[in-house]
């Protein structure tokens, strides 16, 4: 209890200090825009399988009352946005979980020079329950890019997360910290000719001993070169070292590919590709030979569709069986605007690695993910959406031999009968199926209805549609 009170006290002091700074700047600079807006939100949530179990499912109703504040500070090359949302949650069946929770977020956009852009975000919650069904996450992130010369750019980022969530491998809930740092440099030496180097470092540390904890670093390089206006090549090489906290079976992986590109139009290329992967570990080496054919369709600045088909030839130096498997390559994101009122967003990806991010200890992993979301403006103040997604994870090593399938379907309505009043209704259905004994199948239905009172539009910018925001909504 003492730590919780200390955390709440720290949040109040931190928030008050930031607000004082915001208002101080607003008087100091005539061009500064500062805004403080209170909001009131009442939410009712129903879940027919709160603990996501196969048997003995638990229904739960949760009523939330939130009084939040948002503040914006805009001045020349600096934009800051602060959100503070205290909330009281009332559980119908799990009475011991009733209580207040506090959420604080701080977003910043900085342009320290003409050639440098930096974005930062902090998100903190006082929620610290460590019980099944509860999830929370505290994050801090910074992303930046600097243009060194007319043709050379440097990108850099750091992401930190401390969370309590459900583990893919076992279905149990665990607390862990994730640190991820990346840096990359790219040089463009022709209209479509590029080359670059990247490096990433990642640490996933569990509070209690866990087989999925790891440390990883990954240098890589790439080049794309068009020999003629219609014929080109691209290639990439990478090294990946994964060091497990609870195992001596660490993995070193060397990968590389080369593609022949044939341009059919300004936005459409076909390709022939060969990729090779070689992994070393104490339990046995692994070779993957992967020829494929496909196409790249650049549909816009931030959207593209890349599809291919090939065969994975796997050779193992252990008890795992060699295999020849058909594999569909997929990397797609596109928004189709079919009318002034409606749009369809699609996303999809596939891949394979010797140790995945979400269940590293399960070893060699193949995955497919695809989803879509349909948005439609039914009336001026009434909008709707429908979404669906499918995820498949395969862990084919002989001592694991596991396949997980997740189907998610849902939709929602948003109605603003008055400028200061918003009503939202959403529904989501999740079906999880697995062939492992480590965790059970489950289905879950969740309904959320909320009423929000907001006196005016905040200066907080409306987030632009992005692939990451779409996938966060339809996959999670």
UniProtKB/TrEMBL annotation:
Pfam families: BBP2_2
Name of protein: Uncharacterized protein, PEP-CTERM system associated
Organism: Desulfobacula phenolica
Taxonomic placement: Bacteria, Pseudomonadati, Thermodesulfobacteriota, Desulfobacteria, Desulfobacterales
């Amino acid at each position: 209890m003492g730590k919780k009170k200390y955390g709440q006290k720290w949040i109040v002091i931190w928030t008050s200090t930031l607000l004082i700074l915001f208002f101080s700047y607003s008087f100091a600079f005539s061009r500064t825009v500062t805004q403080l807006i209170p909001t009131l939100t009442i939410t009712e949530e129903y879940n027919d399988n709160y603990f996501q179990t196969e048997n003995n499912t638990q229904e739960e109703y949760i009523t939330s009352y939130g009084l939040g504040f948002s503040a914006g500070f805009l001045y020349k090359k600096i934009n800051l946005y602060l959100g503070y949302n205290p909330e009281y949650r009332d559980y119908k069946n799990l009475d011991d979980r009733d209580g207040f929770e506090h959420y604080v977020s701080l977003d910043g956009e900085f342009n320290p020079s003409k050639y440098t852009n930096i974005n930062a975000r902090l998100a903190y919650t006082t929620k610290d329950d460590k019980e099944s069904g509860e999830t929370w996450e505290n994050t801090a992130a910074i992303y930046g890019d600097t243009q060194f010369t007319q043709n050379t750019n440097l990108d850099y980022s750091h992401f930190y997360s401390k969370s309590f969530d459900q583990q893919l491998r076992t279905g149990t809930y665990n607390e862990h910290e994730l640190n991820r740092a990346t840096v990359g440099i790219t040089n463009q030496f022709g209209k479509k000719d590029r080359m670059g180097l990247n490096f990433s470092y990642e640490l996933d540390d569990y509070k209690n001993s866990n087989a999925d904890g790891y440390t990883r670093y990954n240098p890589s390089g790439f080049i794309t070169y068009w020999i003629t206006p219609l014929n080109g090549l691209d290639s990439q090489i990478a090294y990946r070292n994964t060091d497990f906290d609870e195992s001596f079976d660490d993995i070193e992986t060397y990968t590389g590919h080369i593609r022949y590109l044939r341009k059919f139009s300004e936005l459409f290329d076909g390709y022939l590709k060969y990729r090779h992967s070689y992994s070393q570990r104490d339990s046995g080496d692994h070779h993957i030979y992967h020829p494929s054919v496909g196409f790249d369709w650049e549909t816009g600045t931030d959207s593209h569709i890349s599809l291919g088909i090939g065969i994975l030839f796997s050779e193992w130096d252990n008890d795992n069986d060699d295999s020849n498997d058909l594999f569909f390559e997929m990397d797609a994101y596109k928004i189709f605007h079919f009318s002034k009122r409606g749009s369809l967003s699609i996303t999809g990806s596939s891949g394979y690695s010797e140790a995945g991010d979400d269940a590293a200890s399960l070893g060699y992993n193949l995955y497919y993910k695809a989803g879509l979301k349909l948005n439609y403006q039914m009336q001026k103040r009434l909008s709707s959406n429908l979404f669906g997604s499918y995820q498949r994870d395969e862990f084919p090593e002989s001592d694991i031999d596991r396949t997980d399938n997740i189907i998610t379907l849902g939709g929602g309505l948003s109605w603003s009968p008055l400028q200061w009043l918003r009503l939202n209704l959403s529904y989501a259905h999740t079906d999880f199926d697995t062939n492992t004994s480590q965790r059970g199948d489950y289905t879950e239905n969740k309904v959320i209805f909320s009423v929000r009172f907001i006196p005016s539009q905040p200066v907080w910018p409306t987030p632009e549609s992005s692939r990451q925001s779409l996938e966060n909504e339809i996959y999670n």
